[in-house]
Specification:
This protein is of the alpha+beta class and about 180 residues long. It is about 20% helix and about 35% strand.
């Protein structure tokens, strides 16, 4: 992209869907613990939705009360770590939400929002390709995509997700270090 190689452009926008659909499971304090229910939910329903095995770990939760939050993690066969926030949302019921997964629908929204922000900066139409499968964000919350302008010039497009709850991001055109 002719105008973007000499200096990166940064823009901030809000509202991209970035997380997977929440899943919930019932648990009984008298029998199954919150952490056991969370691990079963991740390794069952959520893994099925991911289309791959997930190895889950949920730390022990003491004295569960409605409204209490907890966290879990899961590791993919490729070694990616998926983070989850859990909520005891009713007596004997939990809900889990991934916090670092960009869904396929989220990628499409992110690509379009990034192009909308960057096209006026480069004064050209821009096609951004972030792939066709869900993405587990690394610890730095960066997602590296490929951008191609209407003239056929291409460059990396680096999205930094600044808030995984709202979908706020910064986007830079330029080289990847």
């Amino acid at each position: 992209m002719k105008t973007s190689r000499s200096r990166p452009f940064i823009a901030l926008t809000v509202g991209v869907v970035l997380i997977t659909s929440g899943c919930s499971a019932d648990f009984s304090i008298g029998g199954e613990s919150i952490e056991s229910a969370g691990e079963k939910l991740i390794e069952g329903e959520i893994a099925a939705g991911f289309g791959q095995e997930l190895d889950a770990t949920c730390p022990a939760v003491a004295d569960a009360e409605v409204g209490m939050t907890f966290s879990c993690t899961a590791t993919t066969p490729a070694g990616e770590v998926v983070n989850f926030t859990g909520l005891v949302d009713a007596e004997d019921h939990i809900e889990l939400q991934s916090t670092n997964v960009v869904t396929v629908e989220g990628l499409v929204s992110l690509e379009r929002a990034g192009a909308d922000v960057l096209e006026p900066e480069i004064n050209a139409k821009l096609d951004i390709d972030c792939g066709v499968d869900r993405v587990v964000l690394p610890d730095n919350n960066e997602l590296i995509c490929e951008g191609t302008d209407e003239f056929g010039d291409s460059a990396p497009i680096v999205f930094t997700i600044t808030d995984t709850e709202t979908g706020a991001f910064e986007v830079v055109i330029g080289s990847v270090d």
